[in-house]
TrEMBL record:
It is a multi-pass membrane protein. The keyword Membrane applies. Keywords: Membrane, Transmembrane, Transmembrane helix. Coiled coil: none annotated. It comes from Terriglobus roseus. The chain crosses the membrane at residues 62-80, 142-159, 166-192, 212-234, 255-274, 305-326, 353-375, 381-404, 416-436, 442-459. GO terms for molecular function: transmembrane transporter activity. This is Amino acid/polyamine/organocation transporter, APC superfamily. Pfam families: AA_permease_2. It is found in: Membrane. GO terms for cellular component: membrane. InterPro entries: AA/rel_permease1, APC_K+_Transporter.
Length: 622
């Protein structure tokens, strides 16, 4: 526990929960890092689709594409402001869609968001490592290992609590934003001073020769769909409203405003700088591959100290952008679990007032995804954004329905229009993204969404069956109260056995003490008379029965199980209490020095027994 306290912090009392609430400054890195850092890879994803057009693709089509993306971003901003105000206790897509459109729509949003959060974590980590590999190419063979190491660091920081994670991520967030804004500002200034033709300090790699002479609508739609990866973190703040200090809605909206404002400036500025300096995307399989951001910073400032400071901040911010998923996924999992569509373990708060099991689940899925795709961002991106835009659409449609049910709401018509516009815009974008990315990997997401919904329905059916079978409308019954038949498996006479026998004699008048005859003689039958029977006769106590079960193959567990199950058939109306004497060691490693037969026996009794078999632990603490 001392190691846990050092690594993850000391446990927090429930009464300390209000101290864990955060302000706007901490909310920006916690809930906005994913959105902000998408400026580092969003433009590149669009530019990679324009590679067949050569330099002409960036010069003529990049700004219009990002103009459309920024318009959509502005619509989402105003839409989610309404959601945050309407749902001060957290207005994630699942909650909004479930309350206004029904559980079916809510589960669709939940499945989409779960996939999106897992991809957010995986893409964030892999994009950070890609930035590192761009600056230090010799690390390329270790890309997956670096991804998993960074994932471990993020998990440890998150397990320390919301407040501490916000403090840790604040410096890399503001350093990332500051260096990118400096790149945008200086780049635009140089472009203005040079009348739109600045001279790069470090010349960008020559563009790949154009393989297409004429642009097609399909190519532009694919570029737009890929660039929409820059908007995947927009919903995070609405999901995490409850993490903010009072007034929660106002502070959450302030954080959202700062996040969207900075993202808007960086996306527009980086797209303009790329066009002005003639920067194009490189083939990610190229041995000398550099990210677009690396090329842009080098073009504006050269490869001096500022370049390495910027790339270092990009690495840290991109890697830590996975924190947005770690902040929101557990909250969303809890909301789903409250309706019994996910395991109830996601409702539990851990030692640092976190929904820790959500963090554990997200960690496992993210690590699996990184391993499957070898930590390569370009392989993960095609799966990305679909879940987010599906959730956006359902959330905004749900908000329209919400305003329809509240005719007394202030400025209801304007709010309904904004949310309706958001639903239409994101719905159209969803179709474009799905069609454009379908063959590149989006089909995987399209299959996973119904599979997750089917799984959640299965979980719901399980809990419904449990509630139905265990519900008891009758008061406590005093009929057919009978002492149980007590069975005590023992190996030899010692203090642990003596404790179990004493407890068994208190429980029932009918006690069976069972030993298993193997090729090793325990000597228990020789001590039976003077260690057990003589004291019982002296005190006129209930007489237990000693039962010796033969083991043909020298095993202990199987003969015991067969005997207990035979008793269950022999006494169809009696409860059978199996008292299991168990040694409890002081240190975990001491368990390795003892057999674990008791654990195996308990497991088999749970699996093969029925409601009439009761297992009771009789521990002896060293």
């Amino acid at each position: 526990m001392r190691l846990f306290d050092l690594l993850l912090g000391k446990p927090l009392a429930t009464s300390d929960a209000h101290n864990e609430h955060i302000g706007v400054a901490a909310g920006i890195p916690i809930f906005g890092l994913d959105g902000l850092t998408s400026a580092a890879y969003g433009p590149e994803q669009a530019m990679a689709i324009l590679i067949p057009l050569g330099l002409l693709g960036v010069q003529q089509h990049l700004l219009p594409i990002f103009g459309a993306i920024l318009v959509l971003l502005a619509i989402l901003y105003f839409s989610y402001r309404q959601t945050i105000e309407a749902y001060p206790n957290g207005g994630g897509s699942f909650t909004v869609a479930s309350e206004n459109l029904g559980d079916g729509a809510g589960l669709l949003a939940a499945a989409a968001l779960m996939i999106d959060y897992i991809l957010t974590a995986a893409v964030g980590v892999s994009a950070g490592v890609t930035a590192l590999v761009s600056a230090v190419p010799r690390l390329h063979p270790h890309q997956l290992t670096l991804c998993l190491l960074i994932l471990i660091v993020i998990v440890v920081i998150n397990l320390r609590g919301v407040k501490e994670s916000g403090f840790v991520f604040m410096l890399p967030t503001f350093l990332f934003v500051g260096t990118l804004l400096a790149t945008v500002g200086v780049g635009i200034w140089h472009a203005y001073a040079a009348h739109g033709h600045p001279i790069p300090v470090s010349a960008p790699p020559p563009p790949i020769s154009a393989t297409m002479q004429y642009v097609t609508i399909w190519l532009l739609l694919k570029a737009f769909a890929s660039g929409c990866a820059a908007m995947t973190g927009v919903e995070a703040v609405s999901n995490g409203v409850t993490a903010f200090k009072e007034p929660k809605s106002r502070k959450a909206n302030q954080a959202l405003t700062v996040i969207i404002g900075l993202l808007f400036i960086m996306l527009a500025g980086l797209a303009y700088v790329a066009r002005a300096y003639g920067v194009t995307a490189m083939d990610s399989n190229d041995a000398a591959y550099q990210s677009v951001l690396s090329i842009e910073v080098a073009a504006v400032f050269g490869r001096g100290w500022f370049y390495f400071l910027t790339m270092g901040s990009v690495l840290a911010a991109l890697s830590f952008s996975a924190n947005t998923a770690f902040a929101d996924f557990p909250r969303m999992a809890r909301a789903i679990a409250l309706k019994d569509y996910m395991p109830r373990v996601f409702l539990l708060r851990g030692r640092r007032l976190l929904f820790s099991h959500g963090i554990y689940a997200l960690t496992g899925f993210t690590a699996l995804l990184l391993i499957i795709f070898n930590g390569v961002t370009d392989r993960l991106i095609p799966l990305y954004a679909i879940g987010a835009f599906l959730a956006f659409t359902l959330s905004q449609a749900g908000m329209v329905r919400h305003w329809m049910k509240h005719p007394e709401a202030k400025h209801r018509s304007i709010k309904m229009f904004l949310n309706g516009l958001g639903a239409v815009a994101t719905g159209v974008t969803l179709i474009v993204v799905l069609v454009a990315k379908f063959t590149s990997g989006a089909w995987i997401t399209a299959l996973l969404v119904p599979a997750i919904i089917w799984l959640m329905h299965g979980i719901k059916r399980h809990y419904t069956r449990i509630n139905h079978e265990t519900a008891d409308p009758e008061p406590l019954r005093f009929t057919d109260l009978e002492q149980p038949l007590v069975v005590i498996p023992v190996a030899r006479w010692d203090k642990i056995t003596e404790k179990a026998v004493r407890f068994g004699l208190v429980m029932s008048q009918e006690v069976k003490i069972v030993t298993v005859e193997t090729d090793t003689d325990s000597g228990f039958d020789e001590t039976w008379e003077h260690m057990v029977m003589a004291p019982i006769r002296a005190h006129d106590g209930p007489v237990p029965q000693m039962v010796q079960v033969k083991s043909t193959y020298r095993t202990v567990i199987t003969p015991l199980m067969d005997y207990i199950l035979s008793l269950e058939k022999e006494y169809p109306t009696r409860k059978i209490a199996v008292l299991i004497p168990e040694l409890v060691v002081k240190h975990w490693w001491e368990n390795l020095l003892h057999n674990q037969r008791t654990q195996m026996l308990k497991l088999l009794l749970l699996v093969r027994g029925n409601r009439r078999i009761v297992v009771v632990n009789i521990p002896w603490y060293l």
